[in-house]
């Protein structure tokens, strides 16, 4: 069962989860995305919510709509997603992590990057 937060609209949370799957290569570039019905069933969501999430990924240039056959992962989508996620992490998440490390007195040499 999927859990959704109140931090962002559900369609955006789903778009983020689908983007994470795409980063992991599921499905691969050039391959079809699962259908709206399949995703709605998998995530227990209204098909309109799923459609809106997929449209978000189309708007970001990650997916393309092929009339009558579905949505497909664009060539270069994984690289675009990785670069966007990397930038978001470095601008938004990393400063908060650094601040927490500083507050807790954790030094760089104490961190294990191989976990």
From TrEMBL:
PROSITE patterns the record matches: HTH_GNTR
Ranges for domain HTH gntR-type: 8-76
Pfam family, one: GntR
Keyword rRNA processing: no
Record has Glycosyltransferase as a keyword: no
Highest taxon, organism lineage: Bacteria
GO molecular function list: DNA binding; DNA-binding transcription factor activity
Keyword field: DNA-binding, Transcription, Transcription regulation
Gene3D superfamilies assigned: 6.10.250.1220, Winged helix-like DNA-binding domain superfamily/Winged helix DNA-binding domain
SMART domains per UniProt: HTH_GNTR
Matches recorded under PANTHER family: GNTR-FAMILY TRANSCRIPTIONAL REGULATOR (PTHR38445:SF10), HTH-TYPE TRANSCRIPTIONAL REPRESSOR YTRA (PTHR38445)
Protein name: GntR family transcriptional regulator
Organism of provenance: Roseateles toxinivorans
């Amino acid at each position: 069962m999927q859990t959704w937060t109140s931090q962002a609209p559900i369609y955006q949370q789903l778009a983020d989860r689908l983007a994470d799957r795409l980063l992991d290569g599921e499905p691969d570039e050039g391959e079809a995305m699962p259908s709206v019905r399949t995703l709605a069933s998998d995530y227990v969501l209204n098909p309109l919510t799923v459609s809106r999430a997929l449209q978000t990924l189309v708007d970001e240039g990650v997916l393309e709509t092929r009339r009558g056959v579905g949505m497909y992962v664009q060539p270069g989508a994984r690289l675009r997603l990785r670069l966007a996620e990397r930038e978001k992490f470095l601008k938004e998440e990393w400063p908060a992590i650094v601040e927490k490390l500083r507050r807790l007195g954790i030094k760089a040499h104490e961190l294990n990057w191989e976990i």
